[in-house]
Specification:
This protein has seven helices and nine strands, in the order βααβαβαββαββαβαβ. Strands 1-9-8-7-6-5-2-3-4 form a nine-stranded mixed beta sheet, with helices on both faces.
Length: 245
């Protein structure tokens, strides 16, 4: 196994499987009460996403590999944009597809897309003019989805599923309900999912999420106790990136 990734299957401590509402409140506590910024969490998420891509889907070497990143307008898309920067810096040939006009990207995701543009990374609205990607990264929609994908996001998810390249999903496969695991419409079918902080309750079906990795974004243990009302085992004692299965 790649250095920096601990395989704890069989001896993995009992995890808290979080609902959408649980994670929303954890994010609120992190930002509003503790002053841990969205930028910090997004940078952690994107760095881990790039690491999983390199180690487990690109054979340990990204030089010259063609990576397409599908990005939504929210925090999930922002994490994908951080991964784009990392993979670009490591030598990958990265292309970013935006799910909406750039003017609709606001706050931290807007800042991330501006940085990506300054670095000369190709940012387009349509992925179909280039073929032969080695990896597609799904950073369209995260845990906040309630209902089915619609519009351009749905179209991009369908396009992603039609590609021969493996797909890596950030946090939750786009189109899958983070709380229930239901997929009421089009949903990304990933080879690998990398979820953040703690696994989401809807990720229990391996056929819908593929291999599952868990990445540390810096949530303090007592935050889980505060939100969930119980103590939660710490899975990151050996590594900040662990394999659940």
């Amino acid at each position: 196994m790649d250095a920096g990734v601990a395989n704890r299957e069989g001896s993995f401590p009992k995890l808290a499987w979080l609902t959408r509402d649980d994670m929303r409140e954890i994010d609120r506590v992190m930002v509003e009460d503790l002053g841990i910024s969205l930028v910090q969490m997004m940078e952690n998420a994107g760095r881990h996403l790039a690491t999983v891509a390199r180690a487990h889907l690109l054979g340990g070497d990204v030089a010259g590999r063609r990576v397409l990143i599908l990005t939504g307008t929210g925090g999930n898309g922002g994490g994908g944009l951080v991964a784009a920067r990392r993979l670009h810096a490591w030598g990958a040939n990265v292309r970013v597809v935006v799910a909406a006009p750039r003017a609709r990207y606001a706050g931290v995701p807007r800042e991330q897309i501006q940085i990506v543009g300054r670095l000369g990374i190709d940012v387009v609205s349509d992925p179909v003019d280039v073929e032969g990607y080695d990896l597609v990264i799904d950073a369209l929609v995260g845990y906040s989805l309630n209902g089915r994908l619609r519009g351009r996001v749905e179209e991009l998810a369908r396009w992603g599923n039609q590609q021969s390249a493996p797909i890596l999903s950030l946090d939750v496969p786009s189109g899958l309900d983070a709380s229930t695991g239901e997929t009421p419409g089009e949903a990304i079918d990933p080879s690998v999912t990398m979820t953040l902080a703690m696994p989401k309750a809807g990720l229990v079906d391996r056929t819908k999420v593929g291999r599952l990795f868990l990445a540390d974004i810096g949530v303090p243990p007592d935050t889980y106790q505060r939100v969930l009302g119980r103590e939660v085992a710490q899975p990151f004692t050996h590594s900040d990136l662990v394999e659940v299965w």
